[in-house]
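quick q for whoever's on today - can somebody do inverse folding on this one?? i tried earlier but teh output was garbage lol. tokens:
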């Protein structure tokens, strides 16, 4: 059963590797702040296609406290090569903390039973799930949720 709205953010423990940070640093970084967690894979074409939009959204709301965390969830054996992951992070300009979920512990913790990538989880400052979206249209759903979470940003843009 997938996570429900209002569920608490799972622990990020279980990642096999971290890039751009660590579990300890992340816990301190996201404490009391709205957080977007997105799952991706180097073999996922939609992930790569949607990455610029995702980064634009993350940058837009970063000034309001939004933290972004990426979870690389290998889907195939080739996805487990850390040099390939690092290369994909560089190519896709992924600068946020990246947890590599080679054992699928985070997949389980976030109840991503279908193993979707991309999948996005948006948590409020209290660490409660506000929205979950997956696939090609997940970024659009995420944008709507972010606009509701940060209405002043939209009003200021008008």
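ok took a stab at it. sequence:
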């Amino acid at each position: 059963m997938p996570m429900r709205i209002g569920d608490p953010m799972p622990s990020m423990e279980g990642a096999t590797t971290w890039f751009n940070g660590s579990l300890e640093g992340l816990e301190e970084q996201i404490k009391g702040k709205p957080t977007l967690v997105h799952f991706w894979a180097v073999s996922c074409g939609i992930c790569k296609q949607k990455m610029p939009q995702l980064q634009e959204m993350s940058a837009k709301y970063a000034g309001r406290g939004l933290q972004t965390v990426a979870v690389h969830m290998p889907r195939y054996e080739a996805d487990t090569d850390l040099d390939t992951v690092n290369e994909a992070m560089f190519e896709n300009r992924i600068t946020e903390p990246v947890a590599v979920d080679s054992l699928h512990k985070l997949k389980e913790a976030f109840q991503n039973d279908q193993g979707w990538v991309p999948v996005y989880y948006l948590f409020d400052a209290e660490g409660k799930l506000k929205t979950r979206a997956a696939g090609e249209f997940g970024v659009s759903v995420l944008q709507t949720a972010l606009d509701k979470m940060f209405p002043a940003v939209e009003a200021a843009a008008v």
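fwiw Strands lie at 17-19, 35-40, 67-72, 98-100, 119-123, 129-134. also The two ends are 40 Å apart (CA to CA). so keep that in mind when u check it
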